Amino acid sequence: MIDLLDLNPLTPMHETVRRPLHTETTTSQALYLPIAPPTLGTAGAVIGRELYSGKAFIYCPFCAFGDGLPGGNMIVMGDTGRGKSALTKTYAARQIRLGRRVVVLDTKEQKEREEGEWAALCRSVTGRSPVRFAPGGGTGTARINPMDPTIAGKRQVELVRTIVELGLGKPLDEFAGSALRLAIRQARRRADADGRTPVLADVAAALRSPDAADALAKKRTREQLLADGLEASYVLDRLCGSDQDAAGDLTGMLDGPTSLGVDLDADMIVFDLTRIPSGGVAMTILVAVISVFLEEVWLRPVCECGTEPGRHERRVVDAHSGAWELGAAPATGCRRYTQRKRILVCEEAWHVLGTPRLAALLEKFLKFARGYGLSCVFIVHHLSDIDDSPETQAALKMADTVVVYSMKKAEAEDTARRLGLPAWTAEHITRLRRGVALWKVGEVIYPGVQHLLTEAEQHLCFSSGSMTDLATTAPDPA
């Protein structure tokens, strides 16, 4: 055996050889603190290391799912520049290597690059640029049609009503809601007769020219039915524009046939919303439409082998009750149906959680995430950015993993109170260094998890170029 004392300190072997460790009880207790929380296993994405035990910190909501982690939803928060986006980007990239698919709603623009923060990572992973939206449209931008036939008829009605109510700022009454449903049906009929797909402008036109037969069926006169839906038609005109006025809030984004250049089989899809005014009605409505599109199209059940459930054999597991499960798919050689796992990331998620209507719309994602094989990740600065509405509180309660980076004292105390964290965490959060966060996974708290990046990831996650003083001239070779 080689004596460690005889090794040259500069040789490569010196870098890798380990000194033998005694395994006495007292030594083990000194090396691995008995108060350290348990690990989450060895399967999943490597995050970094747990500072208080020295162990690697590995996390995956799908691998850890069970008694300790009842759901896969996560919320990440902390002051600006503490490492929230870097964590989420590397986490998404590492999950993709495990076979997951990721969708990102990117609302955080890098001004010097004139694109969203996730654009570079998207191109690195898929070789394609994000799906970009911009008021007025233009070259390289995308459009989603809320009346697209890929969205089921009932969901179309719900979605168009949501758009009108968000634009109106209040719920529709029964008369207006009925007039809107009739107008949607009429818009479909007229578009089918012309051999094209209906759009929101068709709904606005149908509201202003109701059918006499529809009025009779509702025991209303045609003039009464017109009055019921007239305000809704004005809202759609304001949002989508008209032949006389092309300055609608959603012009170029929701006012025509779908033009999404989206590969639904891609490992990552990024919706670039950075050009949409923050906090305005356009952002709220666009996120609502994208959410429904994702639910109807992206979240369709599919196995890890790429086949739909109908191509898998049914296997009876209990002859007495007739209970069965999906088994093999002979066409692909897959032995058992395993739901494809997906991750939805909402950057600057106060747009979603801070709007009760949007929080309620996404509640289905959160509540039924386990059935979808979905993990929702929300990134916010502070909980004070989000109101205390019942819809928002319900969304927060469904986040089974909470990651908190450093905050100022008042924000830390508010966070600990609203999330029900132990009292000591408020002071602890204020002392966290950059890149170190408190993690709460289920009911277990990890006080200090240091996020580690590779050199390649540092370039993809760098988002502070405007604040960094870099040399602009080449060094003198002399």
Automatic annotation (TrEMBL):
<dbReference type="InterPro" id="IPR051162">
    <property type="entry name" value="T4SS_component"/>
</dbReference>
<protein>
    <submittedName>
        <fullName>ATP/GTP-binding protein</fullName>
    </submittedName>
</protein>
<dbReference type="InterPro" id="IPR027417">
    <property type="entry name" value="P-loop_NTPase"/>
</dbReference>
